[in-house]
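Sample entry (259 residues):
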Amino acid sequence: MKEYQLKAELEVETERKINKAKDAFIAGLSHELRTPLTSIYGFAEVLAEEKAQDAGSVGEISRIIATEAAEMGRMVDDLLAAARLDSTGVEVELKPTRVSDVVESAVVGFERSGMTIQRRGSQAVVETDAARLRQVLVNLLSNAAKHGGSDVGVSISYGEDVVEIEVWDDGPGVTQEHVEKLFDKFAHAGSTPLLTGSVGLGLAVASRLTRMLGGKLTYQRFNGKSYFVVTLPSQTAKTDREPTKELPPLAAAVKALTS
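Predicted structure, serialized as tokens:
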């Protein structure tokens, strides 16, 4: 009877923790969805009431609405991807893909909203799922837009074994004690979200999708910049041009220190 009672108490406590985590997630998600929705509704009212008369104001308001709608869409995509990854799974279709094309498709929405993103690197081609890789890069760029600095870029490099895509920014980065939790779902430091303004799904989904593509996603802090590095296997990789000796910022800096 004591063993049965202890087991029942443990099950009740576990259920209580699950419900508490679920309630916290729903509350956080509601807040994060409400933020862009409030902007969309407010600026749409301005347009409807014709308070913005000049074309410049209308264009700026339209860009804000489009940006906030895209952010809501990204959060919904993350929720769907997380649910599928934990249940039925997500299918990937590997095809020869020029990495720079995927980068361009990922950055276009951010640049339309006024964000400046530098691009560097090669014309590497690798067997991957372009749609899934794009979702990974969009999540990393969204993270940079929310939590990084004003200097943001994407670098592509390749070698004999791997193709690397670095999404970097000059923001404050993540404290060392929280790096290990960075790619966990709903990552929190105590009761506070690890990344403010986030429900904690974007980086977790990006990491899972990268693994499904046969690669890995890592975080590095170097010389005042944060680097999220997508590493893909290059056993089927090729390039449209002769290999270049130019290295991306992180690799070049590391080589300079170790040579």
